[in-house]
Amino acid sequence: MKPVAIILALICALAAPAHADCYADYKAKQDDPLRLHYGVAKLPDTACSRDAARAALAPRLKRGGWTLLNIVSVFGDDGLEKRKQSAGSYFLRY
What we know:
Elements: H1 2-15, E1 22-30, E2 35-43, H2 50-63, E3 67-75, H3 80-87
Antiparallel strand pairs: 1-2, 1-3
């Protein structure tokens, strides 16, 4: 009976989704007067690609009066700390 329990435990462990947070760093602008910013945003699990990040982030920035220029990269927790200083007040703001 023990081998069956071990196999079931392994199947459950492999079937459970790996949940890693997803982030994007981006560039945005405002016009009149021109203002630019670099920021980092947390994304939903379903937006962990550049195209999906653009679709998720553009409306959030627009509500704040910003236009998304581009997604620089999409990354996990491991890249978060090294971008914090560069993003300044736009770190996880949107």
